[in-house]
C-alpha cells in the first residue's frame, strides 16, 4: 500500500474509448447539460483518463485536467475503526443465542422468545435497508457511520438497564436498537473499500472490513459462556455476571462512537482509483436513487447473485443462531464447548475471508472463486451434518472449522463480485440488497431449521440447509461474469490504447463492442 501523496504512475499510450458508463442511477440527458466529453461530437480525441472524467466546472475538452490518483494513510484508520464497531455489533447479536439456556432461565422465557433476540437483527434489516442505502447514497458515508456506531452504543446502554428478570421487553427493545444499528453497518464494507482503497487492495480491504463482523461473532461465541456461566441455582449471581458483560460492551461501544466521529471523513481528498475518479466528479443533482435500484433489478447476473448470496449467508445465520441447540442436543451440558465450536467456525472463516480477498486482488477471478467456495461450503455443510452426532466433539471441532472456512469466507466474495458486475451503481446499495436477501433467507431458514430440530433432530435441519445451498450452486454457475469496475481500472493503464471521439451512433456501437471485448479478456 502506498502512503499519502504516493501518486500512481501514469502509463504511456491511448485507448479506444467510448462514453463513460452511466453512473449511479445517472439521469439521462445530464451529460449534455454538463458538457461532458461524451456529450457532443466536438469532444475531440482525448486521452482515456480525460475522456472518462467529467471536466471541472462546465468546460470540457483537451484542456480538462486529470484528477490525481492517490492513496491516503487515513484509509487504514477508517478501516480499523469501522471493523471494531462492526465487531461490537456482531458480538451483541450472538451473545444471547450462545447463552440461550442461561437467558431462558434468567428471563423465565421460552427458547423461541430468546431466539427472537437474534432474529430481530434479521427482521429489522429487511424494511430498513432501502432507507439506509438511500441515506448512504444521498447523505454520505460519515453520517451513516455515525448512525451505526451511535445506535450500537445506545442499544448497549439500554441492555445495562434490562438486567432484571421481569425486563425481557426492555432487553428486546435494546436488541432492536442494535439491530437498527446493523442496518447502517453491514452495507459499508464494499463502499469503504471502493471509496478509500486502490484497485490492487480493494478486495482485501473489503475482506478486512467483513472480518471485523466475523471476529465479533467469534468473540461472541467464546466470551459470553466464560463471563456468564449457567449458575442455575443462583439467579443473583447470574444477573451480576450478565451485568458485567453488558457494561463492558457499553463502555467499548462508547469509545468507538467517539473514535468514529474523529476518524471518519466522507471521502479522501484524492480518489484512490480511476473508477472512483469517474464517479466522484458526477454532480449530486444528477443522481437518482430510484433509477439506481431499477438498474440493479434489471441486471440479471446481480439478481442471480442476490438470491444465491441470500441462501448461503442465510444458512450461515441459521447455523450460528441454532448452534447451541444443535450441540447441546447431542452433547448435554457442553454449552462452553458449543461456544468454542462457534469460535472455531468463525475464526476459520476469517482466515478464509482474508485468503479470498488476497486471491481476488491478485487474480480478479470473481466468478470462478465464488463458485468454487460455494461448492466447498456445500461439501463442508454435508460433512458437518453427518458427523455432528457421532459422539466425538473433536470431530465436530474439525468439521465446524472446515465449514466456517468456506461458508464465512464467502461473505466478502459476494460483496466484491456484486460491486464488479453492477459498477457504476453504488456499492452501498448493491451490498445492502445482498444483506437484505441474506436476512430474509436467514429468518426463514432459522425458523424452519429450529422447528425441524425441535420436532425431529439437528440432522433434519441441516439437510434442509444443504438442499437450499445446492440450489445456490446452480444459480451461481448461471451468473455471467462482466467485470465492469475492473475494465475501467485496468483499461486506463493498458499500453495498447487509442482515443477517438464519439460522433455518431455507429461510433458509439463500435466503442461498446471494444469495451465488451476488454471485459471478456480481463476475465
TrEMBL record:
Question: Bias category Polar residues: which stretches?
Answer: 512-523
Subcellular location per UniProt equals: Cell membrane
Domain named Major facilitator superfamily (MFS) profile: which ranges? 78-484
Q: Which UniProt keywords apply?
A: Cell membrane, Erythrocyte maturation, Glycoprotein, Membrane, Phosphoprotein, Receptor, Transmembrane, Transmembrane helix, Transport
Q: Could you mention a single GO BP entry for this protein?
A: mitochondrial transport
Which InterPro entries does this UniProt record tie to the protein? FLVCR1-2_SLC49-like (IPR049680), MFS (IPR011701), MFS_dom (IPR020846), MFS_trans_sf (IPR036259)
Keyword Transmembrane helix among record annotations: yes
State the source organism's domain of life: Eukaryota
Which organism is the protein's source?
Mauremys mutica (yellowpond turtle)
Recorded GO MF terms: heme binding; heme transmembrane transporter activity
Which SUPFAM superfamilies does UniProt cross-reference here?
A: MFS general substrate transporter (SSF103473)
TM segments? 76-96, 116-136, 141-158, 170-190, 202-224, 244-264, 300-319, 339-359, 371-388, 394-413, 433-454, 460-479
What the entry lists under Gene3D superfamilies is as follows: MFS general substrate transporter like domains
What is the stated purpose of this protein?
Uniporter that mediates the transport of extracellular choline and ethanolamine into cells, thereby playing a key role in phospholipid biosynthesis. Choline and ethanolamine are the precursors of phosphatidylcholine and phosphatidylethanolamine, respectively, the two most abundant phospholipids. Transport is not coupled with proton transport and is exclusively driven by the choline (or ethanolamine) gradient across the plasma membrane. Also acts as a heme b transporter that mediates heme efflux from the cytoplasm to the extracellular compartment.
Bias (Acidic residues) occurs at 1-14
Q: Enumerate the CDD domains for this protein.
A: MFS_FLVCR1
Q: What is its main location?
A: membrane
Provide the protein name.
Choline/ethanolamine transporter FLVCR1
Which catalysed reactions does the entry list for this protein?
choline(out) = choline(in); ethanolamine(in) = ethanolamine(out); heme b(in) = heme b(out)
Q: Where is this region: Disordered?
A: 1-42, 503-523
As for membrane topology, the entry says:
Multi-pass membrane protein
